[in-house]
Amino acid sequence: MATAIVTGASQGIGECIVKRLAKDGYNVAINCYPSEGDRKNAEAVKAQCEEFGVEAEIFEADVSKYDACEEMVKKVKERFGSIDVLVNNAGITKDGLMVRMSEEQYDAVIAVNQKSVFNMTKFVGAVMMRQRSGAIVNLASVAGLYGNPGQINYSASKAAIIGMTKTSAKELGSRGIRVNAVAPGFIKTPMTDALTEEQRNAMLSVIAMRRYGTVDEIAGVVSFLVSDDASYVTGQTIEISGGLSM
Ligand code: NAP
After folding, report:
1. Theoretical Cys-Cys bridge with 18: which of 7, 9, 10, 43, CB 3.0 to 4.6 Å?
2. What pLDDT is recorded for position 191?
3. Ranges of each domain in the chain
4. Is 81 exposed, middle or buried (0-12, 13-18, 19+ CB in 10 A)?
5. Atom of ligand 1 nearest to the CA of 192
6. What is the pTM of this model?
7. Residues of the chain below pLDDT 50
8. How far apart are CA 133 and CA 9, in angstroms?
């Protein structure tokens, strides 16, 4: 049975993606940040994945750390025998206007959102190169495509991911490995629930479909991109924003 690893999969979009891949029939490696709360959430996600009749295992690692990623990928390979799908989902925000943003705020977001993609793609890519097959999906954002005030760090990291997607697609394509990205717009999460009605209406007015997206609508596109139905799609960034940019 094929194996998928999803980073930051103990909640939110990552949780939904890992459950969708379990439903699709993958054994799943559930990465979570090493903390008690994340571990507890990940245990619940693991149980839900197992209900689909697949094997699931939790791998705690801070994916911004190079050595931790190397060790985790080694353990996943040992546990499951192959790594067929990688979803680089883990991400954080530390928003603030550029003139007020601290160096720490900037560096933290780049480390978690951007460096993690290098770490994981390098180590999983090596496994996939030996297998001569694999599919990778990176979580970018509309902020990386169009920019967003208050998110110089976040938009930099997400724009970088789009470039990294293209470069890794070019480096790995001849070995049968595809690399794509998705760029979600406004997705219904506790973050967007916290907005005022005025802020919500302002955002909705620029979305052609006049509604937020759901986590399932992200997971569905990821499921397609890693499937054989997308076997000639690589290096692409698919915007999932309900028509934000037209
Ligand atoms: P979320 O609910 O905050 O989930 C992100 C997950 O990543 C959390 O479980 C988080 O753990 C984990 N994580 C953070 N740093 C990590 C690290 N160093 N190592 C391992 N795991 C780490 O966010 P989300 O909304 O589901 O977002 C998922 C991805 O989609 C992110 O890349 C985000 O940028 C992208 N995205 C989201 C939206 C949206 O509207 N929600 C839009 C565009 C793009 P902790 O809780 O411990 O931090």
Report:
1. 9
2. 65
3. 3-185+214-240
4. exposed
5. 40
6. 0.98
7. none
8. 23
User: For 72-112, how does the pLDDT look when each residue is reduced to its tens digit (9 = 90+)?
Assistant: 999 999 999 999 999 999 999 999 999 999 999 999 999 99
Q: Do 19 and 49 contact (CB within 8 A), yes or no? A: yes
**What is the residue-wise DSSP string for 172-240?**
HGGGTEEEEEEEE-SB-SHHHHTS-HHHHHHHHTTSTTSS-B-HHHHHHHHHHHHSGGGTT--S-EEEE
CA of 174 to the centre of ligand 1 (A): 31
CB atoms within 10 A of CB 207: 18
Cα maximum dimension of the chain: 53
Ligand 1 atom closest to 88 (CA): 32
3-185+214-240 topology per CATH: Rossmann fold (3.40.50)
Please tell me which residue in 26, 106, 154, 212 is annotated as part of the active site: 154
The pLDDT assigned to 63 comes to 99
* Apex 80 CA angle, 77 and 84, nearest 5: 75
Q: Is 146 designated active site?
A: no
